Amino acid sequence: MPRIILHIGMPKTGTTALQRALTKLRPDLVRAGALYPEPVYDNHDILSVATRDFEFLSRQYQQIYNGDPIAAKSDFDRWWSRTLEEITTTKPDLVLFSGEALFSDMGAKELRDLLGQISSEIVVVAYIRRPSSFFLSHLQQHIKASRFAGPYEPMLYRTMLEHFAESFDCEVSAYDRSSLIQGDTITDFFSRFVPQFGLQKAYTAQRSNESLSAEAMALIQDFKRATEPGQNRIYTPETHYLLAAIRSVDAFYPPSRPVLKPGLADLIDHSDPDLLWLRQRYGVTFSGLDYDKVGTMDASSITCPETSIEDICEVDADARAKLTFRVIHNLAKRANLAAQR
Q: What's the pTM?
């Protein structure tokens, strides 16, 4: 009977890079006695289809199946049959699943029952990101589909992890370069949970960082406010092309990392009492925090529907203007090339 490692994220902790590495290295993993079952979009978020009601699935899955839970369940059943067959064929010592959509307060017991068809030896692995860092990273993703910046919501680390701890043994670590092996999620994960696999192979499978600058975030928000005022939480084709133009510009003019306005990171970090629980329960700490101040602040009012990126992040007006014109130039060149075909 194989062991199971169930990696659940959390979101914004290098999960996508890890999943793409695992997908790329599937044949090598099998030779090392480990199986990363056939993924869907590089991951196993599809497990959530069998462990919670359709209305509580991720936005991605609700869009894919256009509100049809029967189609979603049918696809899951076919995938699960293939997964069990793959395990029977490869006979691994270790089975690795990864899905950040599983980081939730729903479905752990159902997940335990499902994975129990494979093994009773299951360990849940979670990486936890600092609240202010998660907020900024989430904002970069959120702004691609929304003209609104907020509202700010705490991550509820304790609620999520206690839910899983009722059904699984859990390994919880800080997503912090100072505590990760070689400062990297992929190397840390392989070193700790797949030690029989070569680190160099895993490390070279990493992807480059795709973070947006504060100037790019402000540009996207203004674009959506001006051209898509009636749409929210929708990633449109127009936004896709705008992002592609921004990426093209970034290739020649590397962007700066976004930074929160002075005092905001401190406010967000020290407003979350769950950090005290994480330190006590799992020994997870973040450098630079004054733990005597944790839980004494209130960050609930830092965003509202009308909040602009400029209210949250340091935006360089000159850099933003240059980015805007470079993006316009990039789009104009593409239009000209298309017209000549």
A: 0.89
